[in-house]
Amino acid sequence: MGLETNGSTGNQTGLKFLIYGRTGWIGGLLGRLCEERGIPFAYGSGRLENRVGLESDIDSAGPTHVFNAAGVTGRPNVDWCESHRVETIRANVAGTLTLADVCREKGLVLINYATGCIFEYDEGHPLGSGVGFKEEDTPNFVGSFYSKTKAMVEELLKNYENVCTLRVRMPISSDLSNPRNFITKITRYDKVVNIPNSMTILDELLPISIEMAKRNLTGIWNFTNPGVVSHNEILEMYRDYIDPSFTWKNFTLDEQAKVIIAPRSNNELDTTKLKKEFPELLSIKESLIKFVFKPNQKTANA
Q1: How far apart are CA 163 and CA 104, in angstroms?
Q2: pLDDT in tens for each of the 302 residues of the chain?
Q3: DSSP state of 204
Q4: What share of the chain is helix, strand, coil (3-state, %, to 5)?
Q5: Kind of pairing, strands 109-115 and 65-68?
Q6: Alpha helix (H) ranges present in the chain?
Q7: Which site from 68, 188, 221, 300 is most exposed, i.e. has the minimal number of CB atoms within 10 Å?
Q8: How far is CA 69 from each of CA 44, 65, 85, 228, 248, rounded to the nearest angstrom?
Q9: Peptide bond into 171 cis (omega under 30)
Q10: Do 183 and 241 form a contact (C-beta atoms < 8 A)?
Q11: How far is CA 88 from CA 44, 75, 81, in A?
């Protein structure tokens, strides 16, 4: 498959993005945002672990910035990574590092969509305390192989001054039919745990990631909306805005552990750094209402 290019012939922005993850959720949304904003872009066709392919993509596209929305999260969930460890390492560690290295060699900033699921509540960051993990904190969650690989690669990427690492958590979008959407997932579960977490509203934060590229920002960023929201709070909003007849059942972490292979991360991330750079950033509950539930309310109640 050749390089897929998009965008107008007259580039008024002076930008051109090369995006990896064409078939993925975030990669697809990124392409759509670029089209809406008139930003020329191309989807990379090379596999991340294939250095020659990446070099060919960059030479062909001539980008100003590279976005990595590729990698392995597992289907239907991260439990897949427990039994496919080599494939997970190849994509999440070897592939990401190769792309970062090629971008550095070419003098390009890499915007890397990473994960914040590398922390869990602890004595210094108790549940409900409002004390979140900062960008410089050392990951403390090793419950899943997926999270282990993500923590490994984040540590190594600190050495690349050209990389902007965005810690995404439990991503949510206004598309409530998308099976990757956290809201869609929990509305389909038989039972849910009820724990406050930091989460990422893609409708608000993906445009911010484009702005971060324009500003050539690098380093690690907690890429979530400020504050936390619990599963039950989201499901209550879903009931109030979308489906008045919706009901759900809770179960404990111990009960959940019996039906999953790998433990799940629960945490709050400190967003002081991101909020300082983007003061307009909404809190998680405000963002949920503005970008997800209100836009869906008319359709649902029509």
Answers
A1: 8
A2: 345 544 444 444 699 999 999 988 999 999 999 999 999 999 999 889 999 999 999 999 999 999 999 876 656 566 778 888 898 888 889 999 999 999 999 999 999 999 999 999 999 999 999 999 999 999 998 878 888 899 999 999 999 999 999 999 999 999 999 988 999 999 998 888 899 999 999 999 999 999 999 999 999 999 999 999 999 999 999 999 999 999 999 877 776 656 555 567 899 999 999 999 999 999 999 999 999 999 999 654 44
A3: H
A4: 40, 15, 45
A5: parallel
A6: 25-37, 51-61, 79-83, 85-89, 96-105, 145-157, 182-188, 202-214, 231-241, 253-257, 272-277, 284-287, 294-301
A7: 188
A8: 11, 13, 20, 24, 32
A9: no
A10: no
A11: 20, 12, 6
Which tokens sit at 48?
């991340």
Can you read off the two tokens belonging to residue 265? 């991360």
Amino acid (one-letter) located at 287: S
Q: Is the model's pTM score more than 0.85?
A: yes
Residue 260: partners with Cβ closer than 8 Å, 6 or more residues away: 77, 79
C-alpha to C-alpha distance for 127 and 119, rounded to whole angstroms: 12
d(CA 20, CA 45): 8
Q: Give the chain's radius of gyration (CA, Å).
A: 19
> Which structure tokens are listed for 96?
């990401």
